[in-house]
Amino acid sequence: MKFRTYIIMIAIALVMSGCSKSKDAQMADAMISSLGEITLKSGDEIAEAEKLVSSLPDSQYDKLENAEALLKARIEYDKLCVSNVESNIEEIVNGSDTTLDKIQTVKELYNQLKDDLKGKVSNYEKLEECEKKIIRDKVEPVEKTIDKIGTVTLDSENAIKIAEEAYESLAPVYKDAVKNYSAISEAKEQLKKLRIADIEKYINGIGEVTTKTVCKLAIQKARSVYESYNEDIRKSISNYDVLVAAEEQYINLNRDEMEKEIDDIGVVTLESEKIIISVRKKYDSLEDDIKAAVRTLSVLEKAESDLSTLKVNEVIDIIESLGEAKLDNEKEISAAQEKYDALTYEQKKAVTNADKLKDARDTVNALKKEKLEKQYETALSKVKKETDSLRKVDRYYPSAWPKYIDTRNYFLPEIYVGSGRIQLYYTLNYTDDTWLFWDRADFYLDSSTPTKSLTVSYFDVIRDNDSGDIWEYYYTKCSEKDIEFLRKVADSKEATVIFYGSKYTDRWTIPEKDKKAIKEILEVYDLMVQLRKGTADLKK
Predict the structure, then answer these.
(1) Which residues sit opposite 410 in a β-bridge?
(2) Pick from 408, 386, 487: which is nearest to 445 by CA?
């Protein structure tokens, strides 16, 4: 504004002075004179002066005093513009934080230059190379990621996805520089073709439809592969109708086979149970869609109902035929009970004479208990009993049990009853006038090889002596295996024990009276257990 005002004032002064120059010529000289020092900001003033000068006729142009100065100002200004672009380019090229935005700013400065000045910018190629390098640095990793897709297979989805994400992460200015971007779309298309072929392969692999498991698995696999792909893939499958038809045919074949097995049940009898159970098991194992297709399920359910009625009536008839309950017909009562127990809860409710069976069972149990109690009393008369009133424990031991421990060798069991428990123990005692320090005893039952080898630690054997006699005995609770071994000893013809000491061995034959004693204690033990069990059954 100041520049324009100054020019106008000069122009008025010249007119008033009566100069022969035209007003425009005087104004042009004044504008040129006012340019002063040329800077990058002088562009508009120079252009305005040039515009005014170019509008003058030749007669007035010749009268200009500052025409040459205007030419020099233009030349100097153009040099400044070129130099400014070059210095900006150098700063970009040599800078450490160069970005495309900064390059674009310099390119805009360059594009503002006139075409003849652009050719004077000596280092513009450096700017272009710098721009290419920045783009390449961004683009090359993406291109390498795309190249990693390689030969497309059914497993290439992840590689394609990674490549596509890498491309999409680029700013728009970089995307056009990616040379192999088309490889992504080509890979996606190839993967689609492979997936289509994969599904069609599995469908074609179904082959002839049968009820066999291998066919079922082939159909399920084809359906699974088909469902694993998106709608775009599925709608391109050329043989999908084959899969649908195979599924339908598989259902129909299994339905027909199931219906035939149901029909084969025929007239229901008690002998039909196995086939009815088999048919029901097969029906229950069918897939839901096949079950839904079976049209004769009601026939199977009717057969099951008829069988249930027959089984109930059979049990009723068996119970009615039992007669008076006594020990002689215990087997018949047990057989009836087994038949009754095999019924379902609902079937048992339909047995109208179940109370008669219970009464018969209770009567037989009572008779059995009475018989056992008599046997028990007889067995008890053969053994001895001691009562520990302090511990409230009864001890039952054989009559053959030595009064004094140092009297002889023996292998005998004994029973302890207390706190509601029945427990069997055995004692193996060695007696002599010289210490043996045995830690192993081998039992030979009618054999030249050991039937049982008992190995104990030094401290497991209790040792003592008196008046020149020593005794060494091992005492332990009986396991089930020990009880069975005691039975074998009692039943053996010859039972020999070899004691192995620290230096010597000693052989001992179990006498017949000890075998008899073992039998007597085991008989008492067995009867105790049976009576305890029988009492529990009665309570139940």
Answers:
(1) 429
(2) 487
